[in-house]
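Lecture 7 notes: from sequence to structure.
We start with the chain below.
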Amino acid sequence: MRLVQMFAAATRSANDLRLVDKASRLGYFLADQSEEAIFMAMIIEGEERIEAPIGKVWAALNDPDILKECIPGCESLEKNSDTELAAIVTLKIGPIKAKFNGEVELKNLKPPHSYTIQGEGKGGIAGFAKGGADVTLKEDGADVTVLTYEAKADVGGKIAQLGSRLITSTSKKLAGQFFSAFNEKVSGS
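Predicted structure tokens for the same chain:
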């Protein structure tokens, strides 16, 4: 209850937004009486072993056509520049189905070993998601690449009202679907 009170106070005062940030970094689900004040933070980590050389995996991670085929619910993915993408993705999370319009930026590029992907998607009345992921590629022999990722996301609005278990399990499922499809596409298996 204390966090709910802190969050309610923080939403009324811009100077206290650091309380919301601190609580989200600690993984707390915060709620207030108003719909706008529903907020949840999560971390998703994973690893995928891909039967392909590191250069091929890096190229695929930067290819909008391959990414579009692998992202669950992706309707469009357009490259605005070498480091910026725009996407439209339709997702169903529990009883809520929403179309998200999002912008993605690639940062900290260290080809062909790592980058950070940051983005934000808005799903209208359903809510929003924003966050980022650190993606790292490591060679494991001549024709095998190990991809690891650590993603941090903040979710707000009606989607966050569904609860942390459903949001986290759905997010892990979607990440699993993406990396499984990506692995299949890149390794050709």
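Points to note: Helices lie at 2-12, 17-25, 54-61, 64-70, 164-187. The first strand starts at residue 39 and ends at 50.
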